[in-house]
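Lab meeting, item 3. Inverse folding demo.
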């Protein structure tokens, strides 16, 4: 019996610092390790990207992974959710949500 195909999980990190210097990012390795240990290798986490705190950059990164031919089964975003003026992840993501699920956000 063959194993089922892996699901594709895309990791998007929103960070001014890490977009300028990817070596400062600790999120991608941490999420990959969590997927490996908790999901028993069921996810391919090779698709990762770091973008700055910019609404259009965030939206582009998400829609490329949700609407493209190589769509992801799961998109994880991390960062840009603070209260600083430059943190715009909620504002970027909200218009992309077609069906809201209060309590799961």
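The presenter then showed the designed sequence:
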């Amino acid at each position: 019996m063959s194993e089922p195909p892996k699901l594709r999980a895309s990791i998007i990190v929103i960070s001014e610092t890490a977009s300028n210097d990817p070596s400062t990012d600790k999120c991608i390795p941490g999420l990959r390790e969590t997927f490996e240990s908790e999901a028993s290798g069921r996810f391919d986490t090779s698709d990762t990207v770091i973008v700055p705190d910019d609404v259009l950059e965030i939206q582009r990164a998400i829609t490329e992974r949700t609407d493209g031919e190589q769509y992801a089964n799961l998109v994880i975003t991390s960062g840009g959710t603070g209260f600083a003026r430059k943190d715009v992840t909620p504002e970027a993501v909200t218009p992309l949500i077609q069906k809201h699920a209060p309590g799961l956000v």
